[in-house]
């Protein structure tokens, strides 16, 4: 198989799969930059003792990938299943779509039984951190579609001390990243848009824009559009009327992984213990 007339680069690493009904298939991934490594399942036939993967429409002996195809015959019928992305946080465990940025520690979060929200605690940044490159307590998930919108409702509590060193927000994370976060300053609650370019080079974040808020509750949103994974952040105080923050940000893949989006609650290194954000829900809609 080669790319042929399609826009599917690769194919990259994969494997031959045979079913109990005698069909042959090939599973492989496509590298799509910020969208990560997208898995494909291709039909496969044997010709002259060689596998031809995909479909050979031009008869040159090489297959090319298919975008859609009938499902494998596995001996039974099953309903269509989709990967979870939205989470109302109304169960005792996080959904399987979530991935922590490092091995999980129990002090990072709590699902409040009977309250139907997720509490993320303000965890100190590593010593000498200038960005989020080594921040472990980022709660992330992969991009689930070429075009989508992610929205979340946050209720921030900075604790009794050190409020100006703590923040919580919605992030699009990769070697370049951007986020909007709520913090409490002397002037009141502030929503801030930050960006960082080439975080692995130890570059510092830049503050792009700030807005004063009337309370500790804010709705944060990011709209992601293909083909370049452009991300437009916005916010609302009533959940209805949203205001854009900054210009669209181009998501960038991480180290050997695609870009991710998710939630965080952090504090500067050396901050006193205390502070959290309650996440009412995290919802994705496909645009």
List keywords for this structure.
mainly beta; 2 domains; 8-stranded mixed β-sheet; 45% strand; elongated
Quaternary state of the chains: single chain
The number of helical runs is 0
CATH T-level topology of the largest domain:
Jelly Rolls
Domain count, please report it. 2
CA(first)-CA(last) distance: 32 Å
CATH architecture of the largest domain: Sandwich
Helix content: under 10%
Largest sheet properties: 8 strands, mixed
Report on this structure:
By secondary structure, the protein is an all-beta fold. It has two domains: 1-79, no CATH class; 99-286, Sandwich (Jelly Rolls). The protein contains no helices and 19 strands. The chain has strands at residues 14-18, 24-31, 37-47, 50-53, 99-100, 109-111, 118-121, 123-124, 139-142, 148-157, 166-173, 177-185, 188-196, 206-212, 217-225, 230-236, 243-250, 260-267, 276-286. Strands 5, 8, 9, 11, 12, 13, 14 and 18 form an eight-stranded mixed beta sheet that branches. The protein has a seven-stranded antiparallel beta sheet with strand order 6-7-19-10-15-16-17, with no helix packed on it. The protein is elongated and about 75 Å long. The two termini are 32 Å apart. The mean pLDDT is 94.
